[in-house]
Amino acid sequence: MAEDMVALRWEEPPEPGDGPVLVLLDQTRLPAEEVELLCTDVPGLVQAIQTLAVRGAPLLGLAGAYGIALAAARGFDVDEAAGHLASARPTAVNLERGVRRTLDAFHAAVPGQRAAAALAEARRLHAEDAHGSREIGRYGLGLLEELLPGGGYRLLTHCNTGALVSGGEGTAFAVVRAAHRVGELRRLWVDETRPLLQGARLTAYEAARYGMPYTLLADNAAGSLFAAGEVDAVVVGADRIAADGAVANKVGTYPLAVLARHHGVPFLVVAPTSTVDLGTADGGSIEIEQRPGSEVTEFTAPYALGVGAQQPGAGVLVAPLGTQAYNPAFDVTPPELVTAIVTERGVVSPVGEEALAAMAAGRIRRERDHLGRLSEDGTAMG
Ligand SMILES: CSC[C@@H](O)[C@@H](O)C(=O)COP(=O)(O)O
Q: What's the complex ipTM?
């Protein structure tokens, strides 16, 4: 089995006196080439976040956390760095949380120990993410076994949620990996994920790497696939889950949820509890990132997508010059369309405010809660 890709790593200075480096696998260059991007300052990291060289909710959390550690180690103004990093992209709550956690650790330490404390906290988050990802795969597979007892799953996924977004195997893709490992992945349907093609460029890349049976489709081909009865379950990630269970994820997720409901297919959202934001009441309160229209009006070949090459005019125009484009990066799926949310603590189903709050408070009992049914005292029962 192929090794997991390392999406992000911390490199200590080669010589005393040099600063450490945050090394990112530049996701804008995949699948054409595996190129590393070296970040030595906060503006460089902010640019990498905004151009999607580093992306996906859990990895954004790690990038934010290590960004604070980098700022601290290199003697930059850490509070200023935190402001720039946390606001680099607005929708994935993990980014601001990764920044906040590390910043708090930095300030809590005594002077002289602060840079080390920030780095230790970033490393803790990294390890937690890897561990959480394993648990997510386990719970997700358990849920599939329960919902689809015949095995041989045909799963549809959107965007990219694998090792490229995580310290481990990812979120929704960790469930796909778990199904593949036990020989029950009959087909992975990969939505290409317009306009930046995270499905085609990244998920297909990961699926091929791990020898999965996968097929790529244009996003608008999903309807005919459901109609043909070819999808057993949809598995997607999340960028922010509001207190009522509304899910913000890559644009194109909501239409899949509507299709899934129409065709009676389970729609599973897979995310660490760090993506659940009880401070955001509902889907309407989630800020949705709007991206440049040029991502829609122009085609840019993946191998030319490198950081800096995403300026308007860098690609080939596919619409009349001056065309306005609607380009939200995410959409919101209402909780009533979500069959279950799979986290590293267990499965929440049905999705609702009370169940999510109990889960966030750690009151889901492991092993026995695949259906997430709540007992009188708010704990999950099997
Ligand atoms: C675990 S990844 C979950 C989400 O972050 C993922 O589905 C997604 O929408 C990523 O969007 P991106 O714009 O590529 O950062």
A: 0.98
